[in-house]
Amino acid sequence: MSNSNLTRRGLMKTSAIAGAGLALPTIFTASSASAFTNEPTGGTVTLGFNVPQSGPYADEGADELRAYQLAVEHLNGGGDGGMMNTFSSKVLQGGGILGKKVEFVTGDTQTKSDAARASAKSMIEKDGAIMITGGSSSGVAVAVQGLCQEAGVIFMAGLTHSNDTTGKDKKANGFRHFFNAYMSAAALAPVLQKLYGSDRKAYHLTADYTWGWTQEESIAAATEAMGWETVNKVRTPLAATDFSSYIAPVLNSGADVLVLNHYGGNMVNSLTNAVQFGLREKQVNGKNFEIVVPLYSRLMARGAGENVKGIHGSTNWHWSLQDDASKAFVKSFGEKYGFPPSQAAHTVYCQTLLYADAVMRAGSFNPCAVVEALEGFEFDGLGNGKTLYRADDHQCFKDVLVVRGKENPTSEFDLLEVVEVTPAAQVTYPADHPMFAGGALGNCNPGA
Amino acid sequence: MDAIILQILNGLDKGSAYALIALGLTLIFGTLGVVNFAHGALFMIGAFCAVTLQRILNISFETIDPTRTDFLGNPMKVKTTYVETWFGPEVGASIIDWAVPLAILFSIPIMIGIGFIMERGLIKHFYKRPHADQILVTFGLAIVLQEIIKYFYGANPIPTGAPDVFKGSFDFGVMLGFDANAIIYPYWRLVYFAFAAIIVGAVFAFLQFTTFGMVVRAGMADRETVGLLGINIDKRFTIMFGIAAAVAGLAGVMYAPINSPNYHMGMDFLVLSFVVVVVGGMGSLPGAVLAGFLLGILESFASMNEIKSILPGIDQIIIYLVAIIILLTRPRGLMGRKGVMED
């Protein structure tokens, strides 16, 4: 200490400068007096697209990004307008949002909750994103939704199917257009009963995380209600790649239906393994053994090749739908990119239009005004028929597609065929349903 | 009983993959003294050799079929493969069908080439550096290779089927006197096990019965003395690196029909293969093979519902648990020699 050059005067000077420095941010915020986080001031508004650009879901992320770019193009008046022409709300006219040109930044979720939060945070704080949207995993959706609630921006969820996203983890600033596990179960159960009867023994293999658990719970409840027995529920690690040791016990379990609560690479491998082990040719209890994949993704189904043929599941949307909206979307996406869009692309395109439309109707970018405009909003013309954004939990209620792996595909995209369009009424549940209990929306947070 | 037999079979084919990768790792470690974390990536590249050959065989030209339309309502473009036009539809279709076995021939030169380039171009410069540096550089290389594959082939798994003759499964139940359908096992997994056994046998025979192998074994025991005898041991070790890469590649080629290849499949196997090498004993080739099968079978048993109901989650930790027990009782691994990595 004897060599220290620190004097009393010097210390005072340094502290004064440091103090002024610390106070600076508050001085700025006080003078700019914005009403909410990232209020757009210039002629542009920035949206944050947070999708998996690396990691196992990168291909779905890439398709989401294509749809976002298409949506931005349409919002700014480019292209053929896509589903803006069929959307029941007519306030979007291709002049940006509230006269501001739409720009976007992208982040990479890597399908990891911490990475997704970090990229969302960076887009909000550095790039001034007014809204965050995207994702291809329920774990990520729940994490980013929580972050957006704290930061005071709107979160328009991408591909997330867990009940929890609009159940126990719902947030006032978060909205989900995609369907959920309960809806899959409610749509699938009657079809399964018609096809396979009401005396069946089901064996569940479930990916061990939030989405897998809620889907297993939903499917088991719906099938048990129609008389099926659940023989066993086996959790498989998310990182599992070879499912043979989980498939083998199914052979002698007495079960005659295998339910694969798997997604992505898990689904591709578990389904491939199940088919390799001859489950589909097997006879149990005098019946044909059946496999069910409750959540189908066409992009992922490609990885399983021929093994998907004849296997039933559900999906949020499919490009082969023949309503005007779906046709318009497939046309503008197909002409721009040369192949039909996936359900992930469809849901994020819808989410972008729905957000823009809500801002226009509210006349403000203020998240609380947007929340108010979206709550209880009824619309049509986005490819799923009449749809309601329910105010109680910010979940969209719309028709659900039951699909089947096609026996004779005519092209590499033609993998699934729609078996039944289950009406929204059949998949609607009360807001206080026990599978969705435990959380509260809370109040909208405008931030700042 | 039937469930136990089934899990042993399961363990054998999982163990085959572990054993083949671990064998290559041990070859490299034993000869060059390098801990090669890029070995899983070589396995993955092998699987992508099968994917690539399948794609090459499926290269096709487009003709327009005005009677059908595509998803946008335009006339459908129908693809016909060149192979089918050259060899006739039947022969052509069966050539495409046999893409995976054909890829064995296709992959050997590619894998040996990649092995040479890796060793001469990068790993050579790290021989005199600490093991930590070698691990870092090979791990980095693995990530680079992985991202290159992802750039060209995408992130989704790519279905690569076995030939039609090997589809379906074999009924052991009838053969062993159990009920029909009690023990059925996919043909291709049996092929995989047999293939692994042949490769392991071939590598051992090569090291045991050829002059080249003898020199390599001598070099593994005492590199300096062999060098002083006027033998260019470095060149032979480079060749061994190529062979090790080919072994990993072949394991990958044949694995493609079991699980659709994706860019991170190498990493999934890498960590386990290292555990296999350590359990088997660093530098011991028979140890690597033995430990590969042992851990494969144990992992399968741990996934049985009867065992999981007593010890939930055991399937996820069993390999590490066994590794700890073996290393506590036999610190050099099952068949480890004295003096390896101990100086």
UniProtKB/TrEMBL annotation, chain A:
Top-level taxon of the source organism: Bacteria
BP terms from Gene Ontology: amino acid transport
UniProt KW Transport keyword: yes
Pfam families from the UniProt entry: Peripla_BP_6
SUPFAM superfamilies (alphabetical): Periplasmic binding protein-like I (SSF53822)
Coiled coil: none
Signal peptide boundaries: 1-35
Annotated ranges, domain Leucine-binding protein: 44-406
Keywords: Amino-acid transport, Signal, Transport
Entries under NCBIfam families matching the protein: TAT_signal_seq
Recorded family membership: Belongs to the leucine-binding protein family.
Record's protein name: Amino acid/amide ABC transporter substrate-binding protein, HAAT family
Organism: Roseovarius marisflavi
From TrEMBL, chain B:
Gene Ontology CC: plasma membrane
Transmembrane among keywords: yes
Family: Belongs to the binding-protein-dependent transport system permease family. LivHM subfamily.
UniProt topology in membrane: Multi-pass membrane protein
One Pfam family, short name: BPD_transp_2
Keyword Transmembrane helix: yes
Cellular location(s): Cell membrane
Full protein name: Amino acid/amide ABC transporter membrane protein 1, HAAT family
Transmembrane segments: 16-35, 42-61, 98-123, 190-216, 237-258, 270-298, 310-328
Gene Ontology molecular function: any one: transmembrane transporter activity
Keyword list, A-Z: Amino-acid transport, Cell membrane, Membrane, Transmembrane, Transmembrane helix, Transport
GO BP of this protein: amino acid transport
InterPro entries: ABC_transp_permease, BCAA_transport_permease
